[in-house]
Amino acid sequence: MKKQKWVSGLLIGVLLLLAACSNGKSEQSGSAGVSSDTASKENVTIRMAWWGGQARHDMMNALLDKFEEKYPNIKVEREFGTENQFVEKINTQAAGGNTPDVVQTSSFFLHDFVARKIHMDLDPLVASGDLYISNFSDADLNGGKVDGKLYMISFGHNITGVIYNTAIFEKAGVALPKNNWTWDEYFQTAQELQKYLGKDAWASEDEGGTYRGFDMFLMQRGKSMFNGNDLGFEKQDLVDWLAFWDKMRKAGVVPPAAIQAEQGDKPQEQSMLARGKVAMVSKSSNQLKIFQKSTKDNLGIVSYPLSPSGDQVFPLIIAGAGISPNSKHPKEAAKLLNFIVNEGDAATIFRGEHGPQASKKMQDVIMGSLGEPEKIEYAFVDEMLPSTKPYPAMPAGSTSVQKLVLTENQAVAFGKKTIEQAADDFIAQAQQILKR
Amino acid sequence: MALAIRYKKLVLHALIIAGVVTMLYPVLWMLSTSLKPSDMMFTDYSLWPKKITFDHYINGWKGISRITFTTFYMNSLVLVFTAIIGNIVSCSLAAYAFGRLEFKGKKLMFSLMLITMMIPLHVLVIPQYIMFNKLDWMNTILPIVVPKFFATEGFFVFLTIQFIRSLPRELDQAATVDGCGPIRIYTKVILPLIVPAIVTTTIFTFIWTWNDFFSQLLYLTGQEKLTVTLALRMFLDAMGDSALGSLFAMSFLSIVPVFLMFLFFQRFIVEGIATSGIK
Amino acid sequence: MRTEAARRRRESLIPYLFLAPWLIGVLAFSAVPIFTSLYLSFTNYNFIGTPDWIGLRNYITMFTDDPQYLQSLKVTLMYVFVAVPLELAFALGLALLLNRGIGGLGIYRSLYYIPSLIGGSVAIAILWRQVFGAEGIVNKTLGIFGIDMPSWIGTPSHAVWALILLKVWQFGSPMIIFLAGLKQIPNDFYEASSLDGAGRWKQFTHITVPMLTPIILFNAIMQMISAFQAFTPAYVISDGTGGPVNSTLFYTLYLYQNGFGNFQMGYASSMAWVLFIIIGIFTWLAFKSSNKWVHYDN
Q1: How far apart are CA C32 and CA B126, in angstroms?
Q2: Where are the transmembrane segments (chain B) (predicted)?
């Protein structure tokens, strides 16, 4: 009896200790508010995290070096990884209250990151003049907002299109695709290409597992993947989508399941497109130049296939960065963002990595020196811009649901499930995740 | 007859050696691939590279965008050595109490220790994660090493207890007669005698902490804090198959410290496994 | 008199002084967490908000409404109950071979132990991805014999076998334990049975195996427990996804995804407890069945 009391006393003691520590911490983070303007000349270190492949890492390092050179009192610690790895890591860090001060983000993550408190409301920093966004285009500005508040400073905008290898088209004697082509034309082109490609290369990657593609497919039907906290489409939509890619696989114009599965989440440098293993892949327009660096063949870009009867609409993707709410140096973090989006020195290094910049002035800085791939990219974005709309909001847990598209498409590809079964399973599991 | 026996023995040796080669083939292939020039990697599948180059080691060591493997190795070594010190100190203290001293509740606590050895990590890891997060220990080695200073690895306590029990009691009785208290007996008599147990603890802590992935993945997130294990995974994602040579070079290097430990302390390892039956 | 009593009391505290680090450790890092996780398993704790008590809902969801969970359970059970028996069979076979007094025991034992030493590391998981890839040396070797195989890592029906082989590959450590056990069997037993005219096979089935049963039990339990908790190979080989088509979605990997990917820590805690219970049940079954087949000396 006595012993029990003693043990439970200790237990309570340990718990109290923990509680005390946690209190201490929340006070600390509370005091580091935005308004404190003390640390402007002190030496501070901020952390920035981004995703990408080797080429982007090198560019970002050069960019941040330049920033440190101009603002010698601020040191920037760098964290990076592939996109999947990045998201996983940022989520873990956020849960631990250890988010980097500046975190790259995009329309795909914005809502989730705001919900997870990875991004803070930037309006006060705009009001105090630390962030200058008056010359931003409306599309870039609005794309950074959630519930009317600004959370993301745009680094540039891009549109998902089909990046293709012109050399393969030429050798196969297939006409280059034109913007606003249809799913039927896409399928036909793939078949024609395949006749030339033979057995060890394919017209396209198997994109039945890409939720971006599926989402665009849905938008053409006036729907969207999510509607509030629920799914925004019917089972038949998913069945049609999976069936299209099944048709592609059966026609042999995309890689067999095992090869596609092994491809996984590889950076541009190692993609099948860069290695000449596929002729087309759908990606964000800004990646054209990154892919181009890894292949000798000239690349082009064309709009994502459309249904002739459906809406002619493409979501505009904004890539940018936000500042963490538990940053101890929000002013310095803002300074870094401001540098990237508003200073000529930065623009010449950054060179519209994520697509045409939000500020027209910065676009002009690099316009004269654009290379061929960037010119193609900018022309594509400018042409398609009128038919874009902002990316739809996504609920918490959306990233897990997005992964399900990949799993269920794989299940069909490997013949593990019928299309009907896969669609049923998807909907059951997605609803279960969104409900949890 | 003698010839037949010798012949049989020879066959046995051949069989066993063939087994060894098959088992170790993948590792040898990794080593040999890491030494081949890139253009020969997929054309020359032989184990002996026709041409040897150390380029992959030089390139691989440069790490990922400026953070070199020097940093990663330093991080791993600091982590491992702190863990070793923690385990040696805390486990030998507890083992001495259990092995030699008499106190109330000893039986109960001993069984408590055996029970903690059985609890799977995953049952504890979520509350621990929440706790370490509240302590603001994220992205430090503290969540990994601090528990080691509190003898949480019951296995090492157990191992050391078994060892202490095998020591003749006359030794500490003699020391008691000389007027030594338990503290002096621990430092003057027991500690010097349990060196083999300490060595075993050291080796296994080294190998396990070096190879551990799960807790490092959870707690170490900053680029500058990455250990060799984490850096390798990062390297795999950033470079993938296009830099297979460097990837293999760094992978191979990462198992070298474990190899060296094994080579020098083989006896302790084999005995440690045989007597305590652990992995 | 009083000082003597005080001295005694002080001395009786000394053991606790030695024990203090361990005691604090047990409380802070085992006792408190284990009850906390039990509590969390009945909540919907998501790391940001406060935990709400939801009773058995997590446990019910798991078994009735989460096909991925059932899949992870299936994959793990298959992994454990295929890999562990195979591993032990190899371990025992090699131990018997090495124990025949042919010399070189020390060096062979060490060489066979190397895989156990490094098998759990990221480096080996990376190697495995290559070895069992579409163009890996396994397929290259099989190709020589005219067997055409797809990428093991990329094919759902094959991927888990790459992981099973990785576990079997590490048979060195149970082998060393078997070797130690074989040394314990007194030679008189064999000599006596030889005099009775028992052949090799009869000696094996009547002496070696029965005498080794306690060690077989021990090895089986230890390897089973560790196999249930395997994480690194599945995580590295599948890039953290458990793919293709969840074919390598180990229990711990799915737990990790829920707990530290989605931060559904309540759900992950219930998963951890179910794993704990499953391991407990199988360990208990192993012990329970042991009076039927394990031979105890005394």
Answers
A1: 12
A2: 12-31, 72-98, 110-132, 144-164, 185-210, 243-265
Token pair recorded at residue C204: 């094996």
Cis-peptide into C244, omega within 30 deg? yes
Q: 3-state class of C53 per DSSP? A: strand
Structural domains for chain B: 2-53 (no CATH), 61-276 (1.10.3720.10)
- CA pair distance C203, C183, nearest whole angstrom: 15
Q: Other C-beta atoms within 10 Å of C9: how many?
A: 9
Contact A258 C68 (CB under 8 A): no
Q: Cβ of C243 and A262 within 8 Å?
A: no
Helix (H) and strand (E) counts in chain B? 14, 0
Q: Does C50 touch chain B (CB under 8 A)?
A: no
State the helix-helix crossing angle for B244-276 and B195-211, rounded to 10 degrees.
150
Put simply, the answer to whether C66 touches A11 (Cβ < 8 Å) is no
User: Which structural domains are found in chain A, ordered by start?
Assistant: 39-158+316-386 (3.40.190.10), 159-315+392-435 (3.40.190.10)
Domains belonging to chain C, first-starting first, are 1-33 (no CATH), 66-293 (1.10.3720.10)
The residues pairing with A320 across neighbouring beta strands, listed in sequence order, are A105, A154
Exposed/middle/buried for residue C236 (C-beta within 10 Å: 0-12, 13-18, 19+): buried
How far C191 CA lies from chain A's nearest CA (Å)?
Answer: 56
B193 backbone dihedrals φ, ψ, rounded to 5°: -80, -25
| Closest alpha carbon to A121 in A323, A340, A368 | A323
CB contact under 8 A, B238 and A22: no
DSSP E strands: which ranges in A12-51? 44-51
Q: Give the DSSP H or E segment for A226.
A: strand A226-227
Please list the pLDDT of chain B residue by residue as tens digits (279 residues): 577 878 888 888 999 999 999 999 999 999 999 998 887 776 777 788 888 899 999 989 988 777 899 999 999 999 999 999 999 999 999 999 999 998 989 999 999 998 888 888 899 999 999 899 889 888 899 999 999 999 999 889 998 998 898 888 888 888 888 888 888 999 988 999 999 899 989 999 999 999 999 999 889 887 788 999 999 988 887 765 567 888 899 999 999 999 998 888 887 777 777 666 554
- Asked whether the beta carbons of residue B138 and residue A93 sit closer than 8 angstroms, the reply is yes
Angle, vertex CA B137, rays to CA B62 and CA A9, nearest 5: 155
Residues from chain A that touch C71, judged by Cβ atoms under 8 A, are none
Q: Quick: pLDDT tens for A238-256.
A: 999 999 999 999 999 999 9
pTM above 0.90, yes or no: no
Token pair recorded at residue C120: 């759990």
For residue B81, give the H/E element and its range: helix B69-100
Tokens representing residue A272 in the block: 């099948």
In this structure, what token pair is assigned to residue A84? Answer: 């999947």
**C253 has a chain B CB within 8 A of its CB:** no
Question: In this structure, are strands A74-81 and A44-51 parallel, antiparallel, or unpaired?
Answer: parallel
| Type of residue at B262 | F
Q: Which of B131, B221, B224 sits opposite A89 (nearest CB)?
A: B221
Contact A47, A344 (CB under 8 A): no
Q: CB of B90 within 8 A of CB of C21?
A: yes
Check: CB of residue C246 under 8 Å from CB of residue B204: no
Minimal Cβ distance to C154: which of A88, A91, A259: A259
CA distance A432 to chain B (A): 22
Nearest to C241 by CA among C225, C256, C220: C256
Is C22's CB within 8 Å of B15's CB?
A: no
Residues in chain C within 8 Å Cβ distance of A95: 47-48, 260, 263
B136 within 8 A of A25, measured Cβ to Cβ: yes
DSSP letters along C20-42, please? HHHHHHIIIIIIHHHHHHHHHTT
Residue with tokens 């407990």: C280
